[in-house]
Design brief:
This protein is mainly β. Helices cover 7% and strands 38% of the residues.
Length: 319
């Protein structure tokens, strides 16, 4: 699909496969499902975008409860995934690239339920005046402190939206090397603590292994194609969690897959946190203490190494 566009269609046909955009620098992680779309045709369709979890609730402590345990880490639960749906009009087209899909989210109208639409009545607005200036006809409020700033300027007060959860990039060191047997040897290290899933599973490396998963995957795409063309060249390898000093590391090996010339390859490293969630949003389960608990996963770190395909068809790390 590289270099083509997606437009609406008017007859039933096979639609393109789901697409995932993943940025290691800012942890943008979006999954696109193209419903009722195909390359270079016309008709009706939707662009369905799935976001990873964006909100978290943490255990709170009260100063009014003497002797309350405040042992770290505290319990926390993260939300499930959320979905936005965009309508693709008869004359709309979407470039088959990461930039094209993100641009489509900016310009295409969203399809929302009536309860989520903006109310027909105008939102409440208040006029902010300097203290002591008095209220004129039609003013809905007069502030005497703070909000007016003392500048004597009129303005309109609106609700301010604040983020409830900001994902910070973890401090991670990832290394990769070729072994004598021509395998990739990968290691990931960095500070982390067991979460509620890990504590339910056990202690030490058992708790850390249950809290997070680290996967290594070799991906490939045709030479000169776009970012959306990356596909897995083989099954991923899950790195093993072991204790080292006062912390833990993840390490493991992965055999390079066979591939053809004129193919670009990379070694993708992904770290996911496993968290407790509701059954309706769970992507799997764990069994701890004889109890089955629903869990989900969210991406917390991603990185990759460039690979080279030699003239003999071997896949090796770029120098």
């Amino acid at each position: 699909m590289h270099g083509s566009t997606l437009v609406r269609r008017n007859t039933w046909c096979a639609t393109p496969a789901p697409v995932r955009i993943l940025h290691g620098t800012d942890l943008l992680d979006l999954s696109f499902r193209l419903s009722g779309l195909k390359s270079d045709d016309s008709g009706e369709g939707l662009l369905v975008v799935t976001f990873g979890p964006q909100h978290v609730v943490e255990q709170a402590f009260s100063d009014q409860v003497p002797g309350e345990s405040r042992e770290l880490p505290v319990d926390s639960r993260i939300s499930g995934r959320s979905v936005l749906v965009f309508e693709v009009g008869p004359q709309d087209s979407i470039a088959c690239s990461g930039e094209g899909l993100l641009d489509a989210m900016r310009r295409l109208p969203m399809r929302v339920v009536d309860a989520a639409r903006e109310p027909e009545t105008a939102p409440l607005a208040v006029t902010i005046r300097k203290a002591g200036s008095g209220a004129g006809a039609g003013d809905s409020s007069d502030f005497s402190d703070g909000c007016g700033g003392g500048g004597g300027r009129d303005g309109t007060a609106r609700a301010i939206a604040l983020p409830e959860f900001v994902q910070l990039l973890p401090d991670r060191t990832v290394t990769a090397a070729m072994t004598a047997a021509n395998r990739f040897r990968i290691e990931l290290s960095g500070p982390a603590a067991a979460n509620a899933v890990g504590e339910a599973a056990g202690a030490g490396s058992t708790a850390m292994a249950a809290s997070r998963r680290v996967l290594a995957t070799v991906q490939k795409r045709g030479s000169g194609t776009g970012d959306l063309e990356w596909t897995a060249a083989g099954s991923p390898a899950e790195l093993t969690c072991t204790a080292r000093g006062t912390g833990f590391v993840r390490s493991g090996e992965l055999a390079p897959p066979a591939t053809a010339l004129l193919t670009e390859c990379r070694l993708l490293i992904e770290e996911y946190e496993t968290y407790l969630t509701d059954p309706s949003t769970a992507t799997g389960t764990i069994t701890a203490g004889g109890t089955v608990r629903p869990v989900g996963q969210r991406l917390v770190h991603a990185d990759y190494f460039g690979l080279t395909v030699t003239l003999l068809g071997r896949v090796v790390l770029q120098e």
